[in-house]
Amino acid sequence: MKIALTCPASLPATQFGGILFLGIHIAKHLSNDGHNLTIYTSDLDFANNASTFNKKLPSQEKIGNFLIKRTHVWFSTFLFYVNPGMYKQMLNDDLDIIHAIGIRSFQAFIAALVSKRKNIPLVISDQGGLTTHPNLKESSFIKRILIEFQKPLIKFIIGQASKIVVANDYEKKIFQNFCNESKIIIIKNGIDLDILSSTKVNFKSKYNINQEYILFLGRFDKIKGIDTLIESINIIKSKIDQSKIKFLLMGVDFGFESKMIKMIKNYDLENIIKIIKNPPRDDVIGAYRESKFLVYPSRWELSPLTPLEGFAFKKTVISSTAHGIPSTIQHNKNCILVEPENPIQLSESILELITNEKKCVDLGNSGYDLVIKQCNSENMAKQTLETYQQIIKESSSKTY
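Now predict its structure.
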C-alpha cells in the first residue's frame, strides 16, 4: 500500500511533541511491514522553540524504511506553518490513501485538496483539541483572526475525510459536533516500546545529579501546569530532604520559560529544581529510566504520550483530571490524578509518592502492564492499517 502521512513537523524536530511521534510510529511499523510510506511535512528543525526552519535539511530523507519529504515554510503564525510546495509533491506522487495528523494545520488542508483533486481516500486525526484547547479562548487578537480563518478549512477537511481517527471517547464527543458518529473510529494512542532497548545514557552522571529526582517532561508552556508544579514544590520544600530529592524540569520553550525561571528564583527554589533545555531524545529516555516518578499537572491534554512513556519504564505519574487525561490513564490504578491548578492537592500527592514507596512501585507496574498490553505503537499501527484497508475496500466497491 502507498501511504501518505502529513504532519506540521517531523524529524528532527522532536520538540514538536505528540503528533510528530504518532506519525513517526505509524510510519515505522507500517513501512517495516512492507508498505510504501512517506511523511510530507515542513522543514522545522530541532531547536528550543517551534519556529526554527532550516532550508538545509534534506528535501528527502530515508529514515529506516520510510521516507520524509520536506518543503520550506514560507511563513508561520503560531503553529500554522505555510509550505505550499507540499501540494506539488503530493500531487506528483502515486498514493493509495492519505492520513493527515493535526487538523488545524496547513498540511491537513493540503492533504484534503490533494485527496479531492486525485480522488484519494483521506483519513484525519487531530490530537489537538479541536474546540477545547484553552488557547482557542485565551488568545491574542492575531490568533483569534487565525482561528476564524481556519474554520472553513476545518469544515472542508472534515467533509473530505472518509474516516476520523480519535484517541478516546473524550475526543469522539468533540467530533460528534461536526459529523455523524459512523465516521469516527477510536484508536488508542500508543508509544514505541523500542525505547526500552534504546541506547542507555548515564543520565545522572551526564547532568551531575546526585539525588533521586522527580521528573517533569514537556513544553515550557503555562498550559502544562508548570506554574502549579513550582507552587507545589514551594509548599513542600521544608518537608522533604533536599539532599536526597530534586525536581527536574526538562523540555523546550513554548513561551513560558522566562516566567518559569522567575518563579523559581522568587520562591528561592534554585537548589531543589534543575532545568534542562532542549534535551536530545536519548537523554529524554535516560531521564525516564532513572527518575523516581513523573509529575505532569496539565491544564489541558487530549491523550498524552508522556505518562505512557514513563509507564514503559515502570514509572508512575501525578497528572490532572483535565479534559482527556482520565480517558488515557486511571486514578489510583496506574497514576494519581489531582484537580488542575490545585498546588495543595499536587503537593500532597508528591509527598505521598515520596513516602509511600510501595504505592509508587505498584502504580508504575500497573502502568507498565497498560502499555505492554494496550497502549503501544504496534497495536496502534495495526488498527490504523485495518482502517486504511477497510476504507480502500469501500472506496473500490463504490467505483465499480
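The first strand starts at residue 2 and ends at 6.
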